[in-house]
Prior knowledge:
Elements: H1 8-44, E1 49-52, E2 54-77, E3 84-87, E4 94-95, E5 100-104, H2 107-142, E6 145-147, E7 152-155, E8 164-165, E9 170-187, E10 199-204, E11 209-224, E12 230-239, E13 249-255, E14 261-262, E15 268-269, E16 271-279, E17 284-289, E18 296-297, E19 302-307, H3 310-341, E20 347-349, E21 354-359, E22 372-388, E23 400-407, E24 409-420, E25 425-427, E26 430-440, E27 451-466, E28 472-475, E29 478-484, E30 506-507, H4 508-511, E31 517-520, E32 530-534
Parallel strand pairs: 30-32
Antiparallel strand pairs: 1-31, 2-22, 2-27, 3-5, 4-21, 5-20, 6-19, 7-9, 7-18, 8-17, 9-12, 9-16, 10-11, 10-13, 11-12, 13-14, 13-15, 17-19, 21-22, 22-26, 23-24, 23-27, 24-26, 25-26, 28-29, 29-32
Amino acid sequence: MEQRKKSPRRRKKTAKRIVGIVIAAIVIAAIVFGLVKLFAKEKLTQTIMTDWTYRGSIVKMIEGSGVTSPAQSETIPVTQKGMVEAVYCQVGDYVEAGQLLYEVEPTEAQKAVDAAKKSLDAAQKSLDEANKQLSELYSEQAKLNICSPGSGKLINCEVKEGDSVFKGQVIATLIDDSKVKLTQYFSYVYAGEIKAGMNAAITIPATMSVLDAKVDSVTMIERITPEGGKLFEAVIVANNPGTLAEGMPASACVISASGERLYPYENGELEYIEATPVKAEASGTAAKVDMKNYLRVWSGQLLVRLDADDYSDQLKRLHENVAAAQAVVDERTKEVEEAMLLFDGYSATAPISGTVMSCNLYAGEEVATGAAITIADTSRMYLEARIDGQDVANVTPGTYVSVTLYSGTELYYSGTVLSVSMEGQSDYGVAYFPATIEIDNYDGNIKSGMYCAYSIMGSQSDDCVLAPTEAVKYTEYGPCLFVRGEGFEGAVELEEGIVPAGFSAVPIVTGLSDDSVVEIREGVPEDTEVFTAYITESANSWENSGVLFG
């Protein structure tokens, strides 16, 4: 079969089509190459930001965070069981020191106190009885010394040494013989005429003397005489010149207002003005007797001393009884005091002023296990901080602290370093020193357990050349700054992290001046005149270099 041949016209169209495709491919390739070149050029020619260095101070701040706690906190546990009568505070209340917090019914405590007091009363009665017996015995012992009840003359002394004396026995009579008295009876004819205080005269036949006297008393008795007369009594008293004795016969007359002498029915006998029996108030043997008939004595003078051997035994036994009773009283008193302490657990007062942080007591309910009230002084809060070992030398008690609380909004407070531990601790190989910061919680917004940030000024260097932190680059030589080279011409390509050939490695401390211009950029663009200033091992550390790297 004969094969068909392509026409010249058809071959021409095909050639045109191939040329078009090639041209389109070239155009697309050119566009792509242009875009890539454009983007690459744009990346290499990014804008270079510059800034001037300046003089200032380098301040190093010690920063961190910690958890807050109250400066002072007290927990008051309820130690007694029973029904809660009243609770006088609730969570959030502010209470003053000494304020009553709660009361629990002291039923059991009252029972214990009543029983202890009853036992104490019984013991006290026993002690009182023992003391009474001892006192009585001492009183009886004191009565072994028989003394004169007054001043006067002794008569009728009937005791001598060695005699047995019994309680109540009259051992002598004490008389007052400074005066004598005469009892006379007068006829009722003189009734109303004889009165106390009237003058009288006493006649003593034995001495043939007459004594001036006075009517001492008048008693209107009714004595009937054998002749049928009726008489009344008058007692007449006169001073004793010292020669008169009781029982001497005598007579008297009363001198009336008109001078008439009124005579009695009969004579009488003289009596001493007063006679007092001296009695023994205890029993014993007369060990010493210092009295005789007609011996003149004074009040309180020892007359007889009795001796009673059994008093010593009785005193010893009663002293032992008193000591035993006192010991029981002391023990019962201690029991009462201990019982009274039980009331302390049934009520309590606030030991400090502050805010009630927790309270699980409820009026009308039984005391729950672990019931307590916690009070905290939140006007001052503590913040526990960790100070790095490199910074601890710059932190001392009294150092000012800026504290920030993040609670929705930032709240700022003033604080002071209260204490810094002298002993460091380690956490995951990092050494730190615990410190306590005291915060003035002036608005009460800082609560216990909150996280707060703190900032302490650790050190400060003045008159330093400073540059923005964005200009810092980190190379194999350490932190570096790119500084515009004044007087350099031409383009230099700088490989990142390598000092270019022909450039001096000048430390920052000498390479920067007050009018240096720092270039702030991410990379090193082409066609840029630069030289590198950086820190070498022989240069000072960055804190002392005069440049703040951030």
